[in-house]
Amino acid sequence: MTTTYSRREAIAAMAAVSVASALQPVFAQEKFPSRPITFICPWPPGGSSDAVIRALAESVSKVLGVGVVVENKPGAGGTLGAAAMVTAKPDGYTITQLPLGIYRIPHMQKTAFDPIKDLTHVICLTGYTFGLVVPADSPFKTLDDMVKAAKANPGAVNYGHTGIGTTPHLAIEEFSQKAGITLNHIPYKGSAEILAAILGGQLMMMSGTTEFAPHVESGKLRMLATLGRARTKQFPNVPTVKELGYDTITESPFGIGAPKGMDRAVTKALHDAFRKTLEDPKVLAAFEKFHQPVIYMNTADYTAYAERTFAAEAATIKRLGLDKKS
After folding, report:
1. Residue 38 pLDDT grade (very low, low, confident, very high; cuts 50, 70, 90)
2. Domain residue spans in the chain?
3. Rounded to two decimals, what is the model's pTM?
4. How far is CA 245 from CA 132, 209, 240, in A?
5. 130-226 is a CATH 3.40.190.10 domain
6. Checking phi first, is residue 135 left (phi over 0); if not, alpha (psi -120 to 50) or beta?
């Protein structure tokens, strides 16, 4: 009787050990994060997006207590980060910046991702301020000067932007329709390349975010207009495109995305950590340098924003005649 009980006891003990061993990796996985995180920047090094993302990465690594490695994946209008989420594991160790173009470009061409079905929208943090600039020696002193020249010589006025379907491209195309002009657009991989081209005399205009601000302040470039709802506090004397009579407003929040199907606890951990970066003086200084306001949305609000924006961008692309079926 004793021997039988001992065997049962031994079997039970062995079973308990087996269960514990089987569960050990599961419990180990619950501790997030326990290793470095890859943070994809879908733009080249050297631009404003790269600088801001690196400031965020440094800050959030301190909050989470692990390394956060920035990986640049430029090209395809800033959509390669979102595309990478389709094949990445939904474990929180691969994240990306989500620019506005990811909601627009799928309506224009076939993409490897669906911005709603394939992504977790973790948190929105900030947004770009857009403007149209020319070299200081340009004959275009005002936006109206440029419009008159473009009407007199259709297609002769060129401008650089960060890629087909990106906000700097579509904003000016929409403005061009409202102004009744045709401009020659030239795509680049990133803002640093465009700045080099316009400062080197290879471009007549640049449409982009305010990484050009230091060159405007130094007198090398002249800003013709901004594209937001209101004038910026940094350039209060520069009019908006809308107030000059062209009904175009361009605003571009961006945040952090991850693969779909991520554990809610991991999503919350990332959200809470990035929320703390908005209190970091170094992050706020990076925002200020590139004239980017804090635009905070939590996970639920950011997800709802994404759904609304995806639908709105479909309508804009169709109106511009740039949809896949046109």
Report:
1. very high
2. 37-127+252-319, 130-226
3. 0.77
4. 15, 21, 9
5. yes
6. beta
